[in-house]
Amino acid sequence: MSEDNVAAEQLRLFIERIERLEEEKKGIGDDIKDVYLEAKANGYDGKIMRQIVRLRKMAPHDRQEMEAILQTYLSALGME
Fold first, then answer.
1. What's the number of domains the chain is made of?
2. Which residues are within 8 A (CB) of 50 and not within 5 positions of it... i.e. 6 or more apart?
3. pLDDT tens series, the chain, 80 aa
4. DSSP run (H or E) holding 78
5. 0.85 cut: is pTM over it?
6. Which positions ≥6 away from 9 have C-beta within 8 Å?
7. Rounded CA gap, 80 and 71, in Å?
8. Backbone dihedral region of 2: left (phi > 0), alpha (psi from -120 to 50 degrees) or beta?
9. What domain range includes position 63?
10. With contact defined as beta carbons under 8 Å apart, do 3 and 16 qualify?
11. What HAMAP family does the record tag this protein with (predicted)?
């Protein structure tokens, strides 16, 4: 097998792996969407739940800093 054939085969395998992972990612995305729909059917606000998930991913210090800046901006706009 020539070096070009080896490189082409390796590239094909990488592409196929990426395609499989993209399909799995789509499936997981669909599962997450279903959980949000189920929560909504039980009276929960999906938008707020998404915000909580995003906040929980943040480091506590980063979250506190963001909340302080938000409060400053709200106050400056007279929204407090």
1. 1
2. 36
3. 788 899 999 999 999 999 999 999 999 999 999 999 999 999 999 999 999 999 999 999 999 999 999 999 999 999 98
4. none
5. no
6. 1
7. 8
8. beta
9. 3-76
10. no
11. UPF0335 (MF_00797)
